[in-house]
């Protein structure tokens, strides 16, 4: 593969920021890819002259590279079988559950692992082709953990960073992974490894110390060949001011008022926004809400919940199961408690434009963010950026966001009784208390936005101990 252009900054992520959609008449359109990685990285790359390597979301031949929003998008192909083995298999059937506290069991298959290696090598080769001499390659997330070492072999001149958007598990869990050492050595091909929280970086360093023949001092790992890789926490964020600005536009404000009217002007509007994933705690949230309606603690005529559940990884059994459970529970709650013409729980299983998401955040009095485990959770930060001072947020302790948004009503979503108390506390919190909490959280999210995150990461990468060979 020969490429005419090379770039000083190259991002590699499993997904491109846009997904290819081929219609029945053969025409092709592109739509924004799901998830927080794309939300964050798209803002980072806008205005930077960089390239983004990733999969187009469909099996088969990759489209030709193309330009979009100042970015050069370089598609990497995946065969149908690789989608099954690398993406759905090892990435989302082995790593995703293992890295999220095995909320569902992790499955290991040697065939999946082989495909993971093949695809990681393909990404490394693509990056090697389009990165300028002495350039920087920023590898993203758990789908590409073997890529850093593979790229280093091909291009010892480039500086390589890796950022983990999800948690890094405690060594006791990580140890379950077959050929776990290869994965760590793959990561250690990077000069700098970024994690959402310090405990994630510590888990990684502990795994290196315990499972590899390396020396770990502080946040540095020294490899047998003398190279050093550094690992530290750099918590990700959102494009706060752009989102806050969008939320104050008359269109979004009017739409927010309209959403409330459409719901019958509830006294309290609660909101959940998640990919339909078993890590997000949607079932626990609905259980708590159902009991609160049942006990009469919440009146279904005046307290409404909107639950947005974005379709995700729909061919995997665990995702089909959680969808079934969520949809059954929503049906039960509405069947048991909704008044005629105004359902208690509005369930939305689809994607929305940014403006509509912002309008929902503006409209909601109480945001419910209750994951069982989440690397960061950008939705929590988006609510803080969009909503005025009179908002309130229930936030799971098991999110990265909980370390930064301490003024949220923190909760353990496994403890349904306490979760119910916390929801009631958030709903009933007096305005002065709401204002104090929201202002502090907004300051935090305004100061620590995604641009600052990218600057911190790239500065740490540039300063990482090991300078690449020139
Ligand atoms: P994850 O990356 O696990 O999906 P995050 O909360 O970090 O979780 O990021 C989710 C991102 O996807 C946020 O930017 C959120 O606004 C966006 N999002 C979630 N649901 C929808 C939806 N139905 N339509 C459009 N965007 C959505
Ligand atoms: C999370 C992961 C991302 C992933 C996104 C959507 O944010 O950290 O790597 O892209 O979920 O999941 P999907 O499997 O559809 O790419």
Automatic annotation (TrEMBL):
It holds the Pfam family Glyco_transf_20. One of its GO terms (molecular function) is alpha,alpha-trehalose-phosphate synthase (UDP-forming) activity. One of its GO terms (biological process) is trehalose biosynthetic process. Signal peptide: none annotated. CDD domains: GT20_TPS. InterPro entries: Glyco_trans_20. Belongs to the glycosyltransferase 20 family. PANTHER family: BCDNA.GH08860 (PTHR10788:SF106), TREHALOSE-6-PHOSPHATE SYNTHASE (PTHR10788). This is Trehalose 6-phosphate synthase.
């Amino acid at each position: 593969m020969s490429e005419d252009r090379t770039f000083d900054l190259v991002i590699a992520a499993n997904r491109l920021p846009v997904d290819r959609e081929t219609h029945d008449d053969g025409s092709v359109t592109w739509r924004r890819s799901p998830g927080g990685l794309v939300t964050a990285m798209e803002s980072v790359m806008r205005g930077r002259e960089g390239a983004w390597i990733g999969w187009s979301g469909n099996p088969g031949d990759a489209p030709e590279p193309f330009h979009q929003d100042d970015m050069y998008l370089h598609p990497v192909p995946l065969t149908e079988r690789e989608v099954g083995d690398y993406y759905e298999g090892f990435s989302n059937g082995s790593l995703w559950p293992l890295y999220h506290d095995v909320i569902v069991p992790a499955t290991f298959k040697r065939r999946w692992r082989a495909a993971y290696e093949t695809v990681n090598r393909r990404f490394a080769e693509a990056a090697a082709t389009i990165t300028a001499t002495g350039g920087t390659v920023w590898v993203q997330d758990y789908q590409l953990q073997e890529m850093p070492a593979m790229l280093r072999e091909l291009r010892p001149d480039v500086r390589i960073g890796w950022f983990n958007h999800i948690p890094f598990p405690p060594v006791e869990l990580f140890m379950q992974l077959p050929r776990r050492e290869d994965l760590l050595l793959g990561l250690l091909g990077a000069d700098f490894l970024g994690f959402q929280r310090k405990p994630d970086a510590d888990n990684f360093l502990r795994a290196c110390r315990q499972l590899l023949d390396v020396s770990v001092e502080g946040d540095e790992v020294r490899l047998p060949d003398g190279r050093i890789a550094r690992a530290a926490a750099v918590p990700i964020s959102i494009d706060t001011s752009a989102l806050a600005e969008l939320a104050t536009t008359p269109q979004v404000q009017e739409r927010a008022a309209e959403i409330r009217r459409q719901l019958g002007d509830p006294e309290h509007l609660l909101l959940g926004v998640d990919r339909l994933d078993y890590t997000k705690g949607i079932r626990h949230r609905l259980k708590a809400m159902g009991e609160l309606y049942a006990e009469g603690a919440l009146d279904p005529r005046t307290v409404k919940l909107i639950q947005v559940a974005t379709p995700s990884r729909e061919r995997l059994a665990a995702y089909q199961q959680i969808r079934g459970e969520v949809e059954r529970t929503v049906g039960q709650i509405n069947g048991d408690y909704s008044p005629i013409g105004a359902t208690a729980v509005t369930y939305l299983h689809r994607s929305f434009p940014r403006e509509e998401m912002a309008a929902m955040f503006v409209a909601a009095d109480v945001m419910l963010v209750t994951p069982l485990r989440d690397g960061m959770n950008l939705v929590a930060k988006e609510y803080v950026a969009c909503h005025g001072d009179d908002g309130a947020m229930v936030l799971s302790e098991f999110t990265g966001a909980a370390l930064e948004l301490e003024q949220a009503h923190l909760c353990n979503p496994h403890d349904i009784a306490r979760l119910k108390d916390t929801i009631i506390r958030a709903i009933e919190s007096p305005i002065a208390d709401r204002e104090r909490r929201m202002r502090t959280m907004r300051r935090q999210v305004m100061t620590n936005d995604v641009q600052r995150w990218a600057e911190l990461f790239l500065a740490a990468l540039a300063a990482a101990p090991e300078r690449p060979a020139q």
